[in-house]
Specification:
Layout lengths: L1 E5 L9 E4 L9 E11 L1 H9 L7 E2 L4 E8 L11 E4 L12 E5 L3 E3 L6 H4 L3 H14 L11 E5 L4 H13 L3 E5 L3 H10 L3 E3 L5 H7 L6 E4 L3 H11 L5 E4 L17 E4 L4 H5 L5 H16 L6 E4 L5 H12 L6 E5 L2
Helix pairs in contact: 3-4, 3-9, 6-7
Keywords: Acetylation, Cytoplasm, Metal-binding, NADP, Oxidoreductase, RNA-binding, Zinc
Pfam families: ADH_N, ADH_zinc_N
Organism: Roseovarius pelagicus
Length: about 325
């Protein structure tokens, strides 16, 4: 089968077309004919810095496609089903014609989206959902009278997080965005207030008369850390997804803050007993999309999957200027 991978960590030019055997599936696995994929920050981080464990590494986590085969113990899907999912960082990725994935982290594709558009939703939806309901431990419908600050609101995760917070909780949402187009985007996603993270973040939030009880730090957490500590309410909660080199954790003590690290691959990496939680939440996301209470965050469609198209998508992702999500079709 065709696939795109890299044999040595480095710049986007390391991505190349390769021919591989079709993946073998385990008892709980689906073999999916991939019809759409998306590019996430994790793709470019791994390609740039992590050497392959073997001859070549295939990246790609988000995918939508059609079930082509199933393992002996699969119970939730059959051949021909249309699915979407975010994969497993410990396995070969979705930048390929066929992909093997555990059924417990797979959802039914939203019927109202084509495969390419559907591929833009899983990873960011899982991440945002787990931040709200696992990290912050908010109950659905909870958060009335409290405020969520989303730093980096126009990115893939922020775009979904704003929507989920407005649809499923009572939180007031402040989103940060620094350009007119990104500010317009986060308002479209449902943000109640918008501030510029390139300015004095703490002062801008204070000017709103709000002290966020929850902060989702989605980008440049180390740079924004002093402002977060300053603006957050006592006994507030912070969740982050990026990889800051250092954080002054003791600065959180006077306000008795709780700090959470969100990593959506944890359940699949460790085979946790609740892996199927991700299947359930993806099915909820699909229902919300079909009902119109959650909208697609795809803003860039890059045509069919080729090495050249994928390189361009990686370069765009590295620019830090992607709004929402960018997606490609299958081979």
């Amino acid at each position: 089968m065709k696939a795109i991978g890299y044999s040595a960590a480095g710049p986007t030019g390391t991505l190349e077309m390769v021919e591989l055997d079709q993946p073998k599936i385990g008892p709980r696995d689906l073999l999916v004919a991939v019809k759409g994929i998306s590019v996430n920050p994790v793709d470019v981080k791994l390609r740039a810095a992590v050497e392959p464990d073997g001859a070549v590494r295939i990246l790609g986590f988000d995918a939508a496609g059609v079930v082509a085969d199933i393992g002996d113990e699969v119970t939730c899907y059959k051949v021909g089903d249309e699915v979407f999912y975010a994969g497993d960082v410990t396995r070969a990725g979705t930048n390929a014609e066929y992909h093997a994935v555990d059924e417990r982290i797979v959802g039914c594709k939203p019927a109202c989206l084509d495969f390419v558009q559907a591929a833009g939703m899983p990873l960011t939806s899982i991440t945002a959902w787990e931040m709200l309901f696992d990290a912050f431990r908010l109950p659905e419908g909870g958060g009335e009278g409290q405020t969520l600050l989303v730093i980096g609101g126009a990115g893939g995760v922020g775009s979904v997080l704003i929507q989920l917070a407005k649809a499923l909780t009572g939180l007031t949402v402040i989103a940060t965005a620094s350009r007119p187009e990104t500010q317009d985007w986060v308002r479209k996603m449902g943000a109640d207030h918008v501030v510029d993270h390139r300015g004095d973040l703490a002062a801008q939030v204070a000017d709103l008369g709000l002290a966020p009880s929850h902060v989702a730090a989605l980008t440049a957490t180390d740079q924004h850390w002093p402002a977060i500590i300053d603006l957050i309410a006592p006994r507030g909660q912070i969740a982050l997804i990026d990889d800051p080199e250092t954080l002054d954790i003791k600065a959180a003590k006077p306000k008795a803050l709780s700090i959470h690290w969100e990593f959506m691959f944890t359940r699949s990496m460790f085979g946790t007993d609740d892996m199927s939680t991700q299947r359930d939440l993806l099915n909820r996301v699909a229902e919300m999309i079909e009902k119109g209470t959650l909208q697609s965050t795809v803003t860039q469609r890059d045509g069919r999957l080729t090495a050249e198209a994928l390189r361009h998508a990686h370069t765009r992702q590295e620019s830090g200027r992607v709004i929402g999500k960018q997606v490609l079709g299958g081979f």
